[in-house]
Write a structure and sequence with these properties.
The complex is a heterodimer of chains A (121) and B (188). Chain A has 121 residues and is mainly α. Chain A contains six helices and one strand. Chain A has helices at residues 4-20, 25-44, 49-59, 67-70, 72-79, 110-113; one strand spanning 88-92. Classes of the chains: A mainly alpha (121), B alpha/beta (188). At the A-B interface, helix 2, helix 3, helix 4, helix 5 and strand 1 of A face helix 1, strand 1, helix 2, helix 3 and strand 2 of B.
């Protein structure tokens, strides 16, 4: 979550990016695109779920809860063909049983490097 | 779990995104902001899809920069998901969202799943929201998460390892802790 101050700093930085690099047209275009990108990202949502995921990865214990990933229910939901499986899986439990920490143990930058992203068309 | 999904998604045009509900942030975690956070993660790498840029400029020019509204966000997301082979959306601690937001979110997800067969949704939460989930997804697969004896022992060992006054505990007390706590939890 961005605090008000962080948002102000972010705005100032975008402004700086635009004003500091007026020297050459090429740099200016790049800075303009970056500023637009930041504006769009901010427009989409103020939430920062990736930051929270990093904290969960740091705190969790290896191996705990791995059995969930071995269940038939999980495997079927995960690997089944589209249209052949129920798309929604609900893992439920009482507070503190470790639902959040179910095997968050791999590469810290996974969401940055592993996902497909979407293409710029 | 997100990481396990990411591992299998690498290089396959499959996206994995994660959202977290927090009762301290109920206000900000409106359905529109939550769905926007999915798009934000999808746009975090590579360029921003053209239809998102167009929607942004339209809001800027026609509505003086108004933030996206829920129906617009749902449409943008549907369109974005179409360009992926598959997307896994993981939403943690759904019980911590405000009840009104939760219903709205489930309703939006229901609408998206209807037109996007390539979308899979993983929800975690306390058992009491089961009825609500079933209301929107009558056939949802459900897995009860109960820590195994090994899970509890690993956790206890970690916590004992962090003890700031280890000398205050002898081997016998340690053995009792490792034996009795897992037993008691199993009886719960």
């Amino acid at each position: 979550m961005l605090s008000g101050r962080q948002q102000v700093v972010g705005n100032v930085n975008s402004f700086n990016a635009l004003t500091n690099y007026n020297n050459t047209s090429i740099v200016n275009i790049t800075a303009g695109q970056d500023a637009e990108r930041h504006q769009i990202i901010r427009w989409l949502s103020p939430l920062e779920p990736l930051q929270r995921h990093g904290g969960v990865q740091t705190d969790r214990l290896d191996s705990v809860g791995n059995w969930v990933l071995e269940t038939n229910e999980f495997r079927k939901w995960c690997d089944g063909e589209d249209g052949c499986v129920e798309p929604v899986l609900f893992c439920y439990g009482n507070p503190g049983v470790g639902k959040t920490y179910l095997r968050y143990d791999r590469k810290a930058a996974c969401l940055e490097t592993g996902n497909a992203g979407v293409t710029d068309n | 779990m997100i990481d396990a999904l990411c591992d299998q998604a690498v290089g396959k045009d499959i996206a994995v995104v994660g959202l977290y509900c927090d009762f301290r942030a109920q206000q900000e975690q409106s359905t529109t902001n939550m769905l926007g956070a999915i798009l934000k993660q999808l746009s975090s790498r590579g360029g921003i899809p053209r239809h998102i840029r167009e929607a942004f400029h339209k809001s800027k020019e026609e509505f003086s920069g108004r933030l996206p509204r829920l129906p617009d966000m749902v449409e943008i997301l549907k369109k974005t998901i179409m360009s992926l082979r598959r997307i896994y959306v993981c939403i943690d601690a759904l019980d911590e969202s405000a009840p009104g937001h939760r219903r709205e979110l489930l309703e939006s997800l229901q609408e998206m799943v209807r037109v996007s067969p390539n979308m899979r949704i993983l929800l975690t939460g306390r058992p009491h929201i089961d009825d609500e989930i079933v209301e929107f997804f009558s056939k949802a697969i459900r897995i009860p998460v109960i820590p195994t004896q090994d899970d509890i022992k690993s956790y206890l060992e970690m916590r004992l390892g962090c003890d700031t006054t280890p000398k205050a505990m002898d081997a016998e007390l340690r053995a009792d802790i490792m034996r009795i706590i897992p037993e008691k939890i199993s009886e719960m």
